From TrEMBL:
It comes from Frigoribacterium faeni. Residues 1-17 form the signal peptide. Residues 42-250 form the Aminoglycoside phosphotransferase domain. It comes from the Bacteria. Coiled coil: none annotated. Keywords: Kinase, Signal, Transferase. InterPro entries: Aminoglycoside_PTrfase, Kinase-like_dom_sf. This is Aminoglycoside phosphotransferase (APT) family kinase protein. One of its GO terms (molecular function) is kinase activity.
Length: 331
């Protein structure tokens, strides 16, 4: 049962000394979410969010997010063209806890809003470039994960192997993904700071401006293509976004787009594995259907491999279905 916004407001006042709350309201979805959340208004115009996890998975993610937010010092945040949640305090609640953050205004982005001419592709490209231009030292100093190109390749190979073991992975995709993994040129990149779990739902916007980025639980040093993969879900705007990104960073990573394509496609493998691990026939059938759609689109595009000029992805209907599936998986 979801906790009421009044209960959460009372918990927030216990978490943060002198928190003067004048009003509270439920925030986000009250069903299907991993968290109970409330938006709190202060008497002098401040706004805060309190979140209480509903599951052990959500609690682990929130704990990792808190470590990352603490690592993002004021100096680091000052290099970003958008806001990042600021931790204010916490209080125990049963076997878990509620955490209070400063509220970051904005609407959650959807891939359908990222269209040519809107200005968003360029703003997103530059914003992601700003994350990747941060000094890696603050991540390693915080004891967070750091992956070499070889480790990124090995992790990808493990994911494909696990998907193949279900015997539900189409042979065409297995061949395509294994060829990409074995292409040593694809994995020649300079690791950067990455959000690690960036997608449209973690980005807040107002008009054509990015106001904030949420969800830093996978903050690490790793492959920058991971943060760009979700842009393949906005196929009409992806060129502008990547061009803005490359211009901002001055990158010479010629395989960046190809690895992003690979990571984008591998969301289907993750969805399949989620279905098998939870024994959900509905999810497994959904993943199999989506993989079939991808195979069909690749055949129409005559694209057999990643890294040989191919950037084929799902058609827009398949992308939207994949994104909605991914949102269900991440809660």
């Amino acid at each position: 049962m979801a906790r009421s916004h009044l209960t959460l407001a009372a918990l927030a006042t216990a978490a943060v000394a002198d928190l003067d709350v004048s009003a509270a309201a439920a925030h986000g979805s009250t069903t299907g979410s991993d968290y109970d959340s409330a938006l709190l208004n202060g008497r002098t115009g401040e706004h805060w969010i309190i979140r209480v996890p509903r599951s052990q998975r959500a609690e682990a993610r929130q704990s990792a997010d808190l470590v990352a937010l603490r690592a993002l010092s004021a100096g680091v945040r000052g290099r970003l063209p958008f806001a990042v949640p600021q931790y204010r305090g916490q209080a125990p609640l049963g076997r878990t806890r509620g955490i209070v953050y400063d509220f970051v205004p904005g609407e959650h982005l959807t891939a359908s809003r990222v269209t040519p001419g809107s200005g968003l592709p360029e703003v997103l490209g530059r914003g992601i470039a700003a994350i990747h231009s941060l000094p890696t030292s603050f991540v390693t100093d915080a004891g967070l994960t750091s992956h070499t190109p070889f480790e990124a390749m090995r992790s990808t190979a493990s994911l494909v192997d696990r998907a193949a073991s279900t015997r539900l992975l189409p042979a065409a995709l297995l061949e395509r993904w294994e060829a990409a993994i074995q292409d040593h040129l694809l994995w020649q990149f300079q690791p950067t700071v990455v959000n690690g779990s960036l997608d449209a739902g973690s980005i807040l916007v107002s008009g054509d401006d990015v106001t904030g980025v949420l969800g830093w639980h996978d903050l690490q040093v790793g492959d920058p293509a991971r943060d760009l993969a979700w842009l393949l879900g906005a196929p009409t705007a992806v060129e502008a976004a990547f061009e803005a990104y490359n211009t901002a960073r001055g990158t010479s990573d010629h395989q960046l787009r190809h690895r992003a394509t690979l990571y984008h496609e591998l969301e289907l493998a993750k969805w399949l594995l989620h279905g098998t691990s939870t024994k959900s026939t509905e999810v497994v059938d959904d993943a199999v259907e989506l993989m079939g759609s991808l195979v069909d689109s690749l055949q129409l595009d005559r694209s057999g491999s990643i890294g040989a000029g191919s950037t084929a992805a799902l058609d827009i209907d398949g992308v939207e279905k994949l994104l909605s599936s991914t949102e269900r998986r991440h809660g």
